[in-house]
Design goal:
By secondary structure, this protein is α+β, with helices and mostly antiparallel strands. It has two domains: 179 residues, Phosphorylase Kinase, domain 1, CATH 3.30.200.20; 209 residues, Aminoglycoside phosphotransferase (APH), C-terminal lobe (Aminoglycoside 3'-phosphotransferase, Chain: A, domain 2). It has eleven helices and 16 strands. Strands 1, 2, 5, 6, 7, 8, 9 and 10 form an eight-stranded mixed sheet that branches. It has a three-stranded antiparallel sheet with strand order 11-14-15, with helices on one face. The longest helix is centred in the C-terminal third of the chain and has 24 residues.
């Protein structure tokens, strides 16, 4: 969910384009099921094609709650006998080796002959930069339970619409076939299917930790244009994306559902989260059209690319779904609060606000920014507590401790770091 590498995020990106997704010549697929998502077998021995199981709670990803469904590898533990280990139990080096091998098979399906691939990120998804002659692509591999194939198809459809209507600069999907948006690969030794999506690469750099006034205003305009498009976007009949409401974040997140959370969180911390849940619920607005709609849901600075032309591109739509528009605003402000100098934050927020309001008014709940900042940090807390990824465990515990401290202060003061009265700053 968080990412600091340049031009990379769990989902990734492509350049400015004119509308329809890129289609490249694929190899002939092995057996697949009809519909927008191919389910096929790759590897040395074909398997029966099966429809992938829809995504389940992030609590399934807890490091201590590993089931036999994960991708497994036989290892010799020293007694001459081969023991099957779940994917999450493998060393990070072994995981990366297996993923790299599978990545080349996925690229072959897409018809891409890669000169080189480089792992950009491996947290929720494995994300590769693909060099193929003069072309550069991003391959996203959803390795464990996460977004279902239909959810990923819906994500790509919204991105296509954003590009076609020139609302913002967003990743351009690359399809193996015009009628196949994502592919779901089954491989011997990988009981869980791997869902893959490809995008063109957006040249540029991840947004710096502190933006000048002009760029902050541009970021505000981009956020507003995203929301303006969402308000008029007609959801397809089969559209399926997660929701980011109070119940989904507080009641259905890893912190609330996972047994392992009770091991990682003290009794006092569990009680704290219960109090925060009630405080936020009592203040949230109704889900009216002015407040609630399709949002990006992960607009931190690592998902904002400044192009060589000086434009702001938005990448990583993996979390997009239905939610409060102010949650996107809170995500932007929270991210830059953590990365810029404290003295620079009010000026950044004022410039961002001017940019947003030059396109559309803030939602009526703009005065509830405190609560949306809390919701954003709760999403991050759920991600940390629900992750089995070794890289996340390197930074996650410290971040989680800091968030819990901020929530204590919120209960005592009613204020959360990053709050400003956006309706009145100029």
């Amino acid at each position: 969910m968080t990412c600091t590498d340049a031009n990379v995020a769990r989902t990734h990106d492509p350049p400015r384009s004119s509308g329809s997704a890129t289609t490249i010549k694929p190899r002939e697929p092995r057996p697949y099921l009809n519909g927008p998502c191919i389910v096929e077998s790759i590897g040395s021995s074909p398997q029966r094609a099966v429809r992938a199981t829809p995504g389940v709670s992030s609590a399934r990803r807890w490091r201590g709650a590993i089931s036999g469904r994960a991708g497994r590898t036989p290892v010799d533990l020293g007694d001459g006998k081969l023991t099957i280990l779940p994917f999450e139990k493998l060393t990070r080096a072994t995981q990366r080796k297996k993923l790299r091998s599978l990545a080349f098979d996925c690229l072959e399906y897409h018809g891409v002959i890669a000169g080189d691939i480089r792992l950009l990120q491996f947290e929720d998804n494995a994300v590769y930069l693909v060099e193929a002659g003069d072309a550069r692509y991003v391959l996203r591999m959803s390795v464990r339970d996460g977004r279902s194939p239909q959810e990923q198809c819906s994500e790509l459809e919204w991105m296509e619409s954003l590009i076609a209507e020139k609302a913002i600069i967003a990743p351009k999907p690359v399809y193996a076939r015009p009628d196949r948006k994502v592919s779901v690969h089954a491989r011997p030794g990988w009981p869980e299917a791997v869902t893959t999506a490809m995008f063109e690469w957006i040249p540029g750099k991840v947004s710096p930790g502190s933006l000048n006034g002009r760029m902050a205003e541009e970021l505000g305009r981009v956020t507003a244009k995203l929301h303006e498009h969402a308000m008029h976007y007609r959801l397809p009949a089969d559209f399926s994306r997660p929701e980011w409401g109070h119940a989904e974040i507080f009641d259905h997140g890893a912190a609330a559902l996972s047994p392992l959370a009770r091991e990682r969180l003290s009794a006092e911390e569990q009680a704290l989260l219960a109090q925060v849940r009630e405080a936020v619920r009592d203040r949230l607005p109704e889900r009216t059209a002015a407040e609630w709609g399709l949002i990006h849901a992960d607009l931190h600075r690592g998902n904002l690319v400044v192009t060589p032309e000086g434009d702001v591109a938005v990448i990583d739509f993996d979390d997009c779904g239905l939610g409060y528009y102010m949650l996107d605003v809170a995500t932007v402000l929270s991210s830059f609060l953590r990365s810029c100098k404290a003295a620079d934050y009010p000026e950044f927020a004022a410039s961002y606000s001017r940019g947003y309001r030059s396109v559309r008014d803030f939602p009526p709940s703009v005065g509830l920014l405190n609560e949306f900042l809390v919701m954003r940090d709760t999403i991050i807390l759920n991600f940390i507590l629900g992750s089995a990824n070794q890289a996340v465990m390197e930074w996650g515990p410290v971040r989680a401790k800091g968030i819990l401290g901020l929530m204590r202060d919120y209960l005592n003061t009613g204020r959360y770091p990053g709050y400003l009265n956006l309706a009145h700053i100029s």
